[in-house]
Amino acid sequence: MYERLVLVWMALAVAVWILLSQVTAPYGRHVRQGWGTPLNARMAWMVMELPSLLIPLYGLLWGRPEGLAAFFLGLWVFHYAYRSLLFPFLIRARKDVPFSVVGMALVFNLANSGFNTYSLLFVKDYASSWTSDPRFLLGVCLFLSGFVMHVVSDARLRALRREGEGSYRIPQGWLFRWVSCPNYFGEILEWTGWALATWSLAGISFALWTCANLVPRALSHHRWYRQHFPDYPADRKALIPVIGP
Q1: Which among 19, 78, 102, 224 is placed 20 to 30 Å from 213, CA to CA?
Q2: How far apart are CA 184 and CA 213, in angstroms?
Q3: Residue-by-residue pLDDT tens, the chain, 245 positions
Q4: Same domain, 81 and 186
Q5: Is residue 25 part of a domain?
Q6: Could you tell me if 83 and 147 lie in one domain?
Q7: Are residues 169 and 230 in the same domain?
Q8: Which parts of the sequence belong to the 3-oxo-5-alpha-steroid 4-dehydrogenase C-terminal domain (predicted)?
Q9: Which of 94, 122, 103 is nearest to 51 (CA)?
């Protein structure tokens, strides 16, 4: 039953990927009317992300995980402590987030964190030898590298805007030399690493959902930059250095 639910969840991710390739999610620079009551951006981000912290944290503290299951839950909690408790107070967002976006993100985070926590507590059973497996080693390296890439890129973007300022500027330096959205590239690497290290169906589903959400958004950002800045670097790619639009 569990595996069937995750497979359905993955099929839904593919459908969402197709949808978001046609309709840009209405928040941030792409916000527009008609998507529900606007909510304060900081509060919206905290509400959206908190389930992804609290559910795995509950599993870590009271689910009695052993060995690598506890390690993986710790990695997850580390990421989402940043995303739900620190990131909302770092952002310099002037635009509110529509209620519909918050609601959809909340449903996603409840399901996604639930599937992955359940997998680690009740489905997967890692032998101690897994720590020397190339999939584990490469996966953890990708997870940590992607996290650093994501956090540093976000910090670079924040540095371009003063509190309350509504204008955008062309990001320069760091990985922005090669791509428009290294923060999204970092997140994709991070959760691809998670899928590899945990070697689980739930992990693969999260990597797929991450791509379904962030690949179309990176392409939308890239088009937006080109439309609003005539001097935008012509050789800069949207998401992956050298490859793609």
Answers
A1: 78
A2: 10
A3: 999 999 999 999 999 999 999 988 777 677 667 677 888 889 999 999 999 999 999 999 999 998 999 999 999 999 999 999 999 988 876 678 888 889 999 999 999 999 999 999 999 999 999 999 999 999 999 999 999 999 999 999 988 876 445 578 899 989 999 999 999 999 999 999 999 999 999 999 999 999 999 999 999 999 999 999 999 999 999 999 888 78
A4: no
A5: no
A6: no
A7: yes
A8: 96-243
A9: 103
Q: Is residue 101 part of a domain?
A: yes
Q: Position 127: which residue type?
A: A
Least Cα distance to 112 among 205, 190, 195 occurs for 205
The CA–CA distances, whole Å, from 121 to 39, 67, 113, 206, 232 equal 35, 11, 12, 17, 48
Number of domains in the chain: 2
Burial (CB count within 10 angstroms: exposed 0-12, middle 13-18, buried 19+), residue 170 = middle
Q: Which amino acid is at 236?
A: R
- Tokens standing for residue 66: 């052993």
